[in-house]
Every structure is written in structure tokens, then in C-alpha cells.
Design goal:
Elements: E1 4-9, H1 16-29, E2 34-38, H2 44-52, H3 60-84, E3 88-92, H4 95-104, H5 109-114, E4 124-129, H6 132-139, H7 151-165, E5 171-176, H8 181-192
Parallel strand pairs: 1-3, 1-4, 2-3, 4-5
């Protein structure tokens, strides 16, 4: 693979989307071929997932299987071709999210890993660590909440992320998400810089 696959992980309200957008913009300004993406995707399976995430009664197994299906399509149609072209792919969430969120719903982590075997682990995972109270302050500014965006769910998910991180083969970069967006972006760039030189134009 010529490119570099980076995913940004963390609980809701940790600032993943903001960091992904800012990091991609910084990489682009510095001359790196980069694309930004996210999970759930904007494809048909991803859109179905976004609807389901508003509904608390959907069985956890359905969530997990839909995420896995969306991820396979995402990998085959966007991520893999981009990596083969030598691009840096920055994704807001990936396989680690399924391990943390669906295991927090009671599913076995080994089973979640098994249904995700068609997609490899990313090269780098940037995990954003944040206090629950700070995450909730950010989340509560939204007009519509998803089923995981409440304190008891976030506390469970944060604990399961720690176990999920031990299951990945990826290099892990843990960052303090209470930093300002600018400082966090610069910190993330400096951490991934050792892996970038061969990819520059």
C-alpha cells in the first residue's frame, strides 16, 4: 500500500469531526494528497445506520452488522483505491468504534472482530481522550441527540474503548481533546509527521 490510513476515534463529543476536518486542511496546505471520510458513510447503508442511531430499540446485533457491511463497502469503494493511489485517508471513526460501542451494548468483542475481518486495521489511530462532562457540554449544543449521547452510555463506551484499543494492531496516538482546536490539530500533525515524508509530493 502506497498511502497511509489514519482514523480518529473517541466518544461522542470528543471532537473527532473537527479534528478530522482541520487535520485534512493542514495536510492539504502542506502539499500532501489527502481525502477525508467518515463512518457511517454517506452511502445507502450508512444513511440507514444514521436513521437507526436515532432509535434506542434497534437490537445491538443489527447495529453491528450494518456497521460491518457499511465498512466493507467503504473500504472497497473509497479507502483502498485511495491508498493505492498514494493518498492519505483520514476517517472520522472506523472499526474501533464498533468494538467500543457495540461491546458496550453487550455484544462479545471477539464476535464484532470476526464480522469485521474483511477490512484491515488502519495504519494509525488517533484516540481523543476527554472527560465525560466536557463531552456532554459539547453534545448538548446539538439540536438532535443520538441514542449513545447520554452520560451512562458515554461512561460505558469510554471504558470499552480502553479494551478495544488493546485489540487493534494499529499504532495508537492518544491526545488530550480539551486542547484548543488549533493546538490539537498541530499536536496531531506533529505526531503523525514521522509517517508522512515518503508520501509528500
Amino acid at each position: 500500500m502506497k498511502g497511509l490510513f489514519i482514523t480518529i476515534e473517541g466518544i461522542d463529543g470528543s471532537g473527532k469531526t473537527t479534528l478530522a476536518t482541520n487535520l485534512v486542511a493542514l495536510l492539504s496546505r502542506k502539499g500532501y494528497p489527502v481525502i477525508q471520510t467518515q463512518e457511517p458513510t454517506k452511502g445507502r447503508i450508512g444513511e440507514l445506520l444514521r436513521t437507526y442511531l436515532q432509535e434506542a430499540k434497534i437490537p445491538p446485533g443489527v447495529d453491528a452488522l450494518l456497521f460491518a457491511a457499511d465498512r466493507v463497502e467503504h473500504w472497497k469503494e473509497l479507502i483502498l483505491p485511495s491508498l493505492e493511489q498514494g493518498r492519505i485517508v483520514v476517517s472520522d471513526r472506523h472499526k474501533l468504534s464498533s468494538l467500543a460501542y457495540q461491546s458496550a451494548q453487550g455484544l462479545e468483542m471477539d464476535w464484532i472482530l470476526e464480522i469485521n475481518t474483511l477490512v484491515p486495521d488502519p495504519d494509525l489511530i488517533i484516540y481523543l481522550d476527554i472527560p465525560i462532562d466536557t463531552a456532554l457540554e459539547r453534545i448538548n449544543k446539538k439540536s438532535q441527540l443520538e441514542k449513545f449521547e447520554v452520560r451512562n452510555e458515554l461512561e460505558k463506551i469510554q471504558k470499552h474503548y480502553q479494551r478495544a484499543l488493546s485489540k487493534t494492531k494499529s499504532r495508537i496516538i492518544c491526545l488530550d481533546s480539551t486542547l484548543s482546536p488549533e493546538d490539537l490539530t498541530n499536536k496531531a500533525f506533529n505526531e503523525i509527521l514521522p509517517y508522512l515524508p515518503s508520501l509528500s509530493r
